[in-house]
Amino acid sequence: MRRIKSFLILICLLSIYTVFLYGCEKKERSDSHNNEVGLPEIVIGSDNYPPYNYVDTDGNATGIDVELATEAFKRMGYKARFIYIDWEDKKNLLADRTIDCAWGSFSMDGRENEYRWAGPYMISRQVVAVNMESDIYSLEDLEGKTIAVQTTTRPEKIFLSKTDERIPAIRSLIALQKRELIYPFLSKGYADALAAHETAICQYIEDYNIKFRILDEPLETVGLGVAFDKNDDRGIEKQLTEILNQMRNDGTEKKIISRYISDADKYLEVDSYGK
Fold first, then answer.
1. Contact 237, 85 (CB under 8 A)
2. pLDDT tens figures, 224-268
3. C-alpha span between 196 and 39 (Å, rounded)
4. What domains sit in the chain, N to C, each tagged with a CATH number?
5. Which is nearest to 220 in space by CA: 110, 146, 127, 143?
6. pTM above the 0.70 mark?
């Protein structure tokens, strides 16, 4: 009888302890949620651009820039919220404060005076890709060819400006509003080549098992940054630059980038960029 009583007492004590632990765990989750809810919100505009920003199978925004932004703004005391935008309209959306910043593998080069910038936080190569059987092996071979690019991107500006002596006279430039369309334009033969960020092309090749060949000679090496409106005087871009530098120095950036692309160090040579 005494053993039964002892056993029942033990059961009761274990039950109380379990309830206590559950209550603590529930409180911790609740406190964490409340802390997140209480944070001021930063609205980030981007478009679909794997591996930087895209929607996963659960319908959530993910990618290099999404993870970097979430962590960086968390350290700054903000909650990051991502919305998909028409990339062509980013400047207007920044001006009317529909979005606080534009973050999506955005090249700073040539746009230094158009926005307030945070960064660069990564470097990237703008490259030309062709079909495997193409007779294009260098930029010189683009003479008389048709090139597909996304509108308002650095490659479009490079081809339209006609200031790079390495690039010959091309036949035509197809500028598409949605960047994911440049790939089928090449694979279906509507264009002889496409130009975009090397990482994005490699991601498309991996995702769709498409065989493109990237030219060895890049169009340009660029710095990626986060754009704020020219008249945004809150100073967020300065603080964000400091936090991104901190994340690069403490290994957070490399850890995040490595989840999406190999040889992350190649894209983190920011300190030597432009020198």
1. no
2. 999 999 999 999 999 999 999 999 999 999 999 999 998 899 899
3. 36
4. 41-122+226-265 (3.40.190.10), 125-221 (3.40.190.10)
5. 127
6. yes
